[in-house]
Amino acid sequence: MDSKMSMEGKVYTVTGAAGGIGLDVALQLAARGASLSLADVKSEELQKAQESIIGNFPGCKAITEVVDVRKRDQVEAWIAKTIKTFDKIDGCVNSAGVMGIMADIPNVSEEDLDLVIDINLKGTFNSLRSQLPNVVDGASIVNIASMGGLTAVPFLSPYCMSKHAVIGLTKTAAKENANRAVRVNAICPGMTETPMLKAFTEQIGSALTPEQVASRQLFKRAAKVDEVSNMVLFLLSGESRFITAVAYPVSGGWDV
Q1: Tens of pLDDT along 206-234?
Q2: CATH number of residue 148's parent domain
Q3: What's the DSSP call for residue 42?
Q4: Which residues constitute the domain of residue 166?
Q5: Chain centre to alpha carbon of residue 94
Q6: Radius of gyration of the chain (CA)
Q7: Hey, which of 63, 162, 180, 245 would disulfide with 121, CB 3.0 to 4.6 Å?
Q8: Domain membership flag for residue 256
């Protein structure tokens, strides 16, 4: 393994670690020798994720905390626990998010709007404001945005709004912390084979098939989850040490 892609001796936090992109990133980090602090609101799934990581990589030290990223105090307690356990944080992946319901703008309820904005945007903000004072100089943070943060997706206005804002937040955090060589980037997945995509296709029912949903991508398929998490690993690694304040599409050409 290239030394710049090795995470041996490093410590990473991951939100949304119980499944999807967050879990795959955690598995890949464990494979590269990292120690992990994993957070998710789903207690049972988070425990299974920890068991899977340790089962596959017995030498990996991985702690978990049930965290609702909407709650600042819970996020701060988790980061404090991470520092107490490992003494440092070398990087962070903020992957917690929801898609929300499909509806045109006039039919989005206040509750539906608040849910998506609070988890996707406020949750990322809460994570960053707890992480940034605690990461080492030269750390790398990756926020999971979406192609919905770079383009428009009809009937998903709260989701698109939240992900556009995450990209703006990412760039602002990068500017504020460049003096410490802390890099902050975002990735923008298109359709990816995750539980979120499954829930989305179930929500639209017979209106569209999964293949039709993915047809906007030039490869005419959804991404495998590792095809997305590989970009996260690159941005966390020393290979990307001069890259910051960028939102990378990982979408098979969605935006062409």
Answers
A1: 445 556 666 777 777 777 889 999 999 99
A2: 3.40.50.720
A3: -
A4: 3-250
A5: 4
A6: 17
A7: 162
A8: no
Write down the catalytic residue from 71, 163, 220, 224. Answer: 163
Q: Is 48 among the residues known to form the active site?
A: no
Q: Which pLDDT value is given to residue 1? A: 46
239, part of any domain? yes
Pick from 183, 254, 196: which is nearest to 225 by CA?
196
Catalytic residue among 10, 159, 220, 248: 159
- For residue 255, being part of any structural domain is answered with no
Q: Is the dihedral of CA 87, 126, 91, 132 positive or negative?
A: negative
pTM as predicted: 0.92
Written as six digits, the tokens of 74 are 């819970």
159: annotated active-site residue: yes
Tell me if residue 5 falls in helix, strand or coil. Answer: helix
Tell me, yes or no, whether 92 lies in a domain. yes
146-191 per-position pLDDT tens digit: 999 999 989 999 999 999 999 999 999 999 999 999 999 999 998 7
Give the total number of structural domains in the chain: 1
